[in-house]
């Protein structure tokens, strides 16, 4: 059987929906649980999980550090994820992909511009309908900023993000994940619609982050009986000889 290879985006370890499915409230606990499954899969089936280095690897470390995860999480990332820099100069991508991406980005930029124009019109209209006592210019300015502009900017940011960023590759780590997966003929693990969309364009297999732990558990459920760990207290634990060593890729 061909050994499976996966390339992980940061969202493969940090996705909220994945944690909810697995029953973990804490991000650090969820990361540990996923990395433990990856460890079992590597030891039992030789399944390799890669992380683009340094872009995604650094992103994972920073995310874990910002959320107060202990050194054990960092050690598991370093131990069970294979760090590899994508070969950006040798992986071939057809010119049609770039043509479609440029056209797609132009469309999304125009959508973002439309959202900005709507926000400007809304702010101007709201200000016109407010009372403007001339002798309280400073207080009026603060009221406009607080009551009108602040709220509209908040809505603008959410709409702009949805119009422009959702579904696109908007960071170097996203591109590194796809290039490395293409290079290794591996599946991508992510919770990112942009990566999913362009994985399809590149002919790269895609596995949603929230189903990845279930996939690994399914592998482990079907481990041959002779290779399963014996019950505690059972002295007939089988030892692996040199011929049974796993080849890690």
From TrEMBL:
Catalyzed reactions: Endonucleolytic cleavage of RNA, removing 5'-extranucleotides from tRNA precursor
Is Hydrolase given among the entry's keywords?
Answer: yes
Question: Record's InterPro entries?
Answer: RNA_free_RNase_P
At the top of the EC hierarchy, this enzyme's class is hydrolase
Molecular function in Gene Ontology: ligase activity
- What UniProt keywords apply to this chain's record, in alphabetical order? Endonuclease, Hydrolase, Ligase, Nuclease, tRNA processing
Query: EC number(s)?
Result: 3.1.26.5
Give the start-end ranges of region Disordered.
224-249
Q: Pfam families, per this entry?
A: PIN_5
Homology family: Belongs to the HARP family.
Briefly, what is this protein's role? RNA-free RNase P that catalyzes the removal of the 5'-leader sequence from pre-tRNA to produce the mature 5'-terminus.
- This protein is called RNA-free ribonuclease P
Q: What organism, scientifically named, is this protein from?
A: Methanosarcina baikalica
Upper classification of the source organism reads: Archaea, Methanobacteriati, Methanobacteriota, Stenosarchaea group, Methanomicrobia
